[in-house]
Amino acid sequence: MTDPARTPTSPARFGLTEARGGEHLRAAGWWADRRPTEGAEAILWALSRSPDPDLALRGVDRLRVALGDAWAELDEALRASDVLRGRLLAVLGSSTALSDFLVANPARWRSLADAEPVAAESFTPVLVAAVEGLTGADAVRALRLEYRALLCRVAASDLAHVVEPDLPYVSYDDVAGLLSDLAVAALTAALDVANRQVPRSDECRLAVIAMGKCGARELNYVSDVDVVFVGEGDIAVATRVASTVMQVAGQSCFEVDAALRPEGKAGALVRTLDGHASYYRRWARTWEFQALLKARPVAGDEELGQRYLEVVRPLVWTAAEREDFVPDVQAMRRRVEDHVPLGLADRELKLGRGGLRDVEFAVQLLQLVHGRGDEALRIPTTTAALAALGRGGYVGRTDAADFGRAYRFLRTLEHRLQLQRLLRTHLFPADDDASALRWLARAAGLQAEGGLSEGQVLLAEFRKRANQVRRLHEKLFYRPLLQAVANVPTEALRLTTGEAAARLSALGYAAPDGALKHIEALTRGVSRRARIQGALLPVLLDLLAGTPDPDGGLLSYRRVSEALAETPWYLRLLRDEGTVVDRLAALLGTSRLVPDLLVRAPEVLRLLADTTALVGRDPMAIGNPLRSTVSRYSDLGRAVAAARSLRRHELLRVASADLLGLVPLRTVCVSLSEVWVAVLQAALDAVQRSSGEPLATLAVIGMGRLGGRELGYGSDADVMFVCEPHDGVSDSDAVRWASSVVEKVRRLLSAPSQDPPLQVDADLRPEGRQGPLVRTFESYRAYYAQWSELWEAQALLRARFIAGDAELGARFLEMVEPVRYRPEGLDAVAVREIRRIKARVEAERLPRGADASLHTKLGRGGLADVEWTVQLLQLQHAFKVPSLRTPSTVRGLRAAEEAGLVSAEDAAALRDAWMTATRARNAIVLVRGKAGDQLPTTGRDLAAVAGVMGHQGDPGEFLDAYRRTTRRARAVVERVFYGS
């Protein structure tokens, strides 16, 4: 079958796909006898280059019908003039809205035939003349018609070179300037109407100040026009004039937005010059000074507008010195990120990652910081300001040029998208919308190349430019700072260290001078390592600025980098894995425990790239690889060192996953418990192998939080040791041998180390610290039968075999069953005794000066309150409720609820408090790098702990929430435990 596009006699040859294309061509007189008519081939080739040839041809046909007998004049002009061909067919193939305008006003095609380029100086006279003597609806109609006609001329000049490549190319900057000048002309005409329409308008003076894109002469085809009004004389009259200006312009041309005025929409529409000055000096926030960067008088009283600038401009350049500059800058960044529509971030030209706002925010912040001392930076237009930053050395010249090209490309796409229907949009087409991508590519002047279609070329270019914008955004924020501290001689960059420190301070670094020293140390020299660090630091500095402790995070990053300087894959991993950089910054800027571990367990860094590996295996099986690895070592020292190393690895892995919010609390506690068990088992096995012929079997019984698989990062390991002599061995020899093994294990595990301590606590054994460290099985039986105290029965509630001989451990637990789960439960005397002991613990063990409402362990509604309450219920009822026989606090509480011993509401209050206190206690260790039970109440430690707990706002709200949770639990404890 013949391809119609390759058939000389087919309209498809000219890019037409619609069935009626030939019919429209014949009606226009451009096609006959299966070929173009004489003189029409140039028109058809121009039509084929239109962004959408079918759309353009439909527009031509509609225009032909609208013109009637006058079509012949347009036909002749199109055949003769490449200027008219380029302009008209470009508009008809790009914009349905402007096609509708031309069809409704067919004689307006003549304005596109003028060989002279559109002149901005003609806009105001044309629009003012259009409304001369008119008011009300008549003025609105006249202004709308002339404004749309001029907009059509701007668009025609903008697009013509796409259709006729020999026509002049009009740059984005020139188009944006023309659109801004057209908007100013419309405001001037609207003010002319308002002055006629509002009575006594001569009794006031009014200046219209353009803000935003109009003020910067970088307006879109479809934008709100941001303005501020300043008046003198009768302000009430001036307000009516301003309101009428907004109404007339809004109904005819574009929305006029005055929300950038002092106090926003709640403020007065018009203020005097003194009113503006007073507000900006006393009340304005940083974002308002950022907006004033682009302010320019455009209409009304010129002298008043100029005086307004003279008042506000000096204030703009002191914004960076304001006390609240740092939180304001951070708030502005959060607002930008929060406005990205969910699921559309990759397609948002304006707010998405690598979008237009990235460029504008970076440039404006650099201007606010450095424009104080360099008047050459005080330029409202983004592209011009960027060029000035490059010329001044604040940005590398090449980077400034690349950033400017990417920005212009994205703005051009935005213009083309808005032209299509004259609707405000910033949304790039979806990847699978081939027709929309093809149209936009052709409208932007892109062509198929290298086997890729126009749409595919556009998609690749868009992604490339968006990535370039994001990378350069990060680089422009920080690279001059890096060059200043590294003292690299260069013509392109001459930012002073003081200015670099000011920029760091603006981003939230409390000690910018110290941060500069860290950056200098990391980037010093010309080695490959320094170059990679130079590429990484712009990203890391930005990420660390969003953490609770940017300064501590940067110090930790320097420590980690220096410790791993000779690790060949370290910097390569950071360079190539964006996820690793994101997660590492979050960890280092929050935790002091993580960097301490990381310098000795760097292999965990690789896991940050793989969420599945970081989360890890079943926490119940976490210790198996550790035990297997250690068992291969015959040398005791190497075996224990291997156990410590693997424990360090797992501790860092769990802490990282925990801080990143990837694992629940139960997984954290079980993992930490099982790692401890595995280390203890491995050390015990290694010591026994090195101790010659064993004289006894030995079992380790986990107690407390270890027994309940509820260890935290700062928990000791509570244990008891039980042995049984081998045949022919006396009890005393067996105990002596077992004690030497146990002492050696404890000594090896508690040896000084930079790792978190491995404290083996045996104080819960019979007779406490006064009793023997190891007893035989029969000794335990005799003791518990004759001498056991109530507190020992309570301690046994959480007993669990964890290491050594499993058969001996099982027999021990069976033997203590009637001790901890008393067949008769507790009598009133025993209950009073437990309550007395608990009250004494509260009175004596809470540290002096501690805030009982914020002590996670011994405070009101804390861990001890919940655990003692559950244990009392177990002692009272476990003999008849088997489900209560568990070493786990959480499971014991659930069993008590299911048995009806506590209400669902009370159980929930206790469970919430226990989990909150456990998480908070863990957070304290993660943040501070050492164990602690008291929550911080101020400073960055509080912010970090609150962040780990999931509270990203005011840290004080976290403390309030913690107190509320524990207060509810304490009320339950008073009723259930104390019987109040």
Automatic annotation (TrEMBL):
- Entry cofactors: Mg(2+)
* Pfam families reported for this sequence: GlnD_UR_UTase (PF08335), GlnE (PF03710)
What InterPro entries does the record tag this protein with?
GlnE, GlnE_rpt_dom, NT_sf, PII_UdlTrfase/GS_AdlTrfase
Catalytic reaction(s) noted:
[glutamine synthetase]-O(4)-(5'-adenylyl)-L-tyrosine + phosphate = [glutamine synthetase]-L-tyrosine + ADP; [glutamine synthetase]-L-tyrosine + ATP = [glutamine synthetase]-O(4)-(5'-adenylyl)-L-tyrosine + diphosphate
Any idea which UniProt keywords this protein has?
ATP-binding, Ligase, Magnesium, Multifunctional enzyme, Nucleotide-binding, Nucleotidyltransferase, Transferase
Entry EC number(s) = 2.7.7.89, 2.7.7.42
Which processes are annotated in GO (biological process)?
regulation of glutamine family amino acid metabolic process
Q: Where is this region: Adenylyl transferase?
A: 489-980
Matching NCBIfam families, A to Z?
PRK14109.1
To which protein family does this belong? Belongs to the GlnE family.
Q: What does this protein do?
A: Involved in the regulation of glutamine synthetase GlnA, a key enzyme in the process to assimilate ammonia. When cellular nitrogen levels are high, the C-terminal adenylyl transferase (AT) inactivates GlnA by covalent transfer of an adenylyl group from ATP to specific tyrosine residue of GlnA, thus reducing its activity. Conversely, when nitrogen levels are low, the N-terminal adenylyl removase (AR) activates GlnA by removing the adenylyl group by phosphorolysis, increasing its activity.
UniProt name for this protein = Bifunctional glutamine synthetase adenylyltransferase/adenylyl-removing enzyme
